[in-house]
Design a protein that fits this description.
This protein has 396 residues and is of the alpha/beta class. The strands form 3 sheets. A 6-stranded mixed beta sheet has the order 5-4-3-2-1-6. Strands 11-13-12-14-15 form a 5-stranded mixed beta sheet, with helices on both faces. Strands 7-8-9-10 form a 4-stranded antiparallel beta sheet. The two termini are 30 Å apart. It holds the Pfam family DUF3991. This is DUF3991 domain-containing protein. InterPro entries: DUF3991 (IPR025054).
Length: 396
């Protein structure tokens, strides 16, 4: 974005910054963290953030805020000046420019009940106390009814130890580092979302639709764990696929972790990375970053996104309105995925692979009568991958 000095250009920039930068990002940069208990008592529409004895409530989907202990309120510009009154509008604009394209971590601040030296609760301990959702439990109903996930997918995630049931109907999705060490969890519920790491940062959620019966040679990266499960429900190429989530923003720690996973997958025959991000501006930013990371380790990559602008993979799954079947993936599931994607991206040239749709049509029920998923279409060899251009528009 060019920053001209004309009044019209400045006004356009102000509108873009107000639209693109969440108040949550500003608060997290200033050291505030999400108050899980207080937020759960309200709703996901009003997120409470704390920094020692300070508190700020974020509303209007991150566009507004107010101070429960004072009179402060307003938009993201006023928030920056509320936190540092010495900053003028020029300072605020420069600070907000650096936050465009980034997403909040929603890391949780654990309550200390006035004891400043009390150790933070270990997320691994909290995780170990919980069990997988069972049919009929609040988290199971949230995932299968409100989120439209097939029961077979939810059950498989539970068996693999990557999904637990939290309080108040929340679903917890475990994150681990490349060595398998538990690092924290994404938490999603009917009126709550957050992330708990104990201060260690996000890593990677991972799920295998084939129960991990063979080494992963196809890595699918999504933005949220529910999107990873949703993509798996729509996907035909389940054999050898690892469906993952970064949990939103990619921190330096999660970037290093993801590169390790990419390097491991790249050693397999016909290895490839599927960048399954949302169809929005943030998705474009992630796609470019992930493609560059894949190129560094010699992993062939391509991007795929839902066809409707602004949609994520869970919205695409729910839009299909079909029940996925348990066991081996039927050929019909591929046609569901082909119907959910687009060959014409909304906001970025070459952002979505057209050959993926060609593959979908070639193996749709009209062309293929097999009841289980056959071998995936072969990707370029690792040697070809290293010499080819790895970009968001690469063919899958």
């Amino acid at each position: 974005m060019a920053y001209a000095n004309s009044a019209e250009a400045q006004q356009k920039e102000l509108e873009e910054l107000r639209r693109e930068v969440s108040c949550v990002l500003v608060l997290e940069k200033a050291g505030f963290r999400l108050d899980r208990e207080a937020t759960a008592q309200r709703s996901a529409r009003n997120l409470k953030f704390r920094r020692e004895n300070e508190a700020i409530i974020v509303n209007h989907d991150g566009k507004g805020w107010w101070d429960p202990k004072g009179d402060g309120k307003g938009d993201v510009f006023k928030l920056v000046q509320h936190l540092d009154p010495s900053k003028n509008l020029g300072h605020v604009r420069r600070e907000l420019r650096d936050l465009i394209g980034k997403s909040p971590t929603l890391e949780v601040a654990e309550r200390t009940k006035g004891v400043s030296d009390r150790p933070r609760r270990d997320p691994a301990e909290l995780w170990g106390r919980r069990s997988a959702p069972q049919e009929g439990t609040p988290a199971w109903r949230y995932l299968t009814e409100e989120r439209g996930l097939p029961g077979s997918i939810v059950a498989a995630a539970g068996r693999q130890g990557v999904l637990k049931e939290g309080p108040n109907g929340t679903a917890w999705f475990g994150h681990r580092d490349a060595g398998g060490q538990f690092a924290g969890m994404e938490m999603r519920g009917p009126e709550y979302k957050g992330f708990s790491t104990g201060g260690g940062g996000k890593r990677l959620f991972g799920f295998r639709a084939d129960e991990g019966t063979e080494p992963a040679r196809r890595l699918v990266v999504t933005e949220a764990a529910i999107d990873a499960l949703s993509f798996a429900a729509l996907d035909r190429f389940k054999k050898g696929s690892l469906y993952t989530s970064t949990g939103g923003g990619i921190s330096p720690e999660s970037e290093a972790n993801l590169k390790q996973v990419m390097a491991t997958v790249a050693k397999q025959p016909d290895a490839r990375l599927v960048i399954a991000v949302d169809n929005d501006r943030q998705g474009h930013v992630y796609a470019a970053k992930l493609a560059a990371m894949a190129q560094e380790v010699g992993l062939w990559s391509g991007r795929i996104s839902p066809k409707t602008p602004g949609d994520d993979w869970n919205k695409a799954l729910r839009a299909r309105g079909e029940e996925a079947q348990g066991g081996a993936a039927p050929a019909g599931s591929l046609s569901r995925l082909s119907d959910a994607i687009t060959t014409q991206p909304a906001a970025q040239p070459d952002a979505v692979s057209s050959s993926w749709l060609d593959q979908a049509r070639a193996h749709s029920p009209a062309h293929h009568q097999a009841a289980s998923a056959p071998e995936p279409v072969r990707a370029p060899s690792p040697a070809t991958a290293r010499s080819a251009t790895s970009s968001p528009g690469a063919s899958l």
